[in-house]
């Protein structure tokens, strides 16, 4: 999936994608360990996609926390 597509997703949608990516990594790792995986690039791609999704979730969480902090500070003044 492209970065732009992932950036446009909401946090709950990204959580669903994270779950799907983790399941795919599990299946690929199982195939890898039982010597049934012909193309190792798919495993690497899945791991990178999961890392990207987790990074975007962290960015969204930090952005939401910063927005909440701004609102709280605005209320104090």
Plain-language structure description:
- By secondary structure, this protein is mainly α.
- 83% of the residues lie in helices and 0% in strands.
- It is built from three helices and no strands.
- Helix 2 (11-33) packs antiparallel against helix 3.
- The radius of gyration is 17 Å and the shape is elongated.
- The chain starts with a helix and ends with a helix.
**Average pLDDT over all residues:** 90
Overall radius of gyration: 17 Å
- Uncertain segments are none
Q: Classify the helix fraction into a percent range.
A: over 70%
Q: Biggest β-sheet: count, sense, barrel?
A: none
> What class, by secondary structure content?
mainly alpha
Tally the helices.
3
Characteristics of this structure?
mainly alpha, single chain
Provide a concise account of the structure shown:
This protein is 83% helix and 0% strand. With 77 residues, the chain is an all-alpha fold. It is elongated.
Summarize the SSE layout with pairings.
Blueprint: H1 3-7, H2 11-33, H3 41-76
């Amino acid at each position: 999936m492209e970065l732009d597509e992932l950036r446009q997703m909401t946090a709950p949608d990204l959580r669903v994608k994270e779950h799907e990516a983790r399941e795919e990594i599990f299946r690929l790792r199982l195939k890898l360990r039982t010597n049934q995986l012909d193309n190792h690039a798919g495993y690497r791609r899945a791991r990178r996609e999961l890392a990207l999704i987790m990074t975007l979730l962290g960015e969204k969480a930090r952005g939401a926390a910063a927005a909440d902090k701004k609102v709280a500070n605005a209320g104090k003044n």
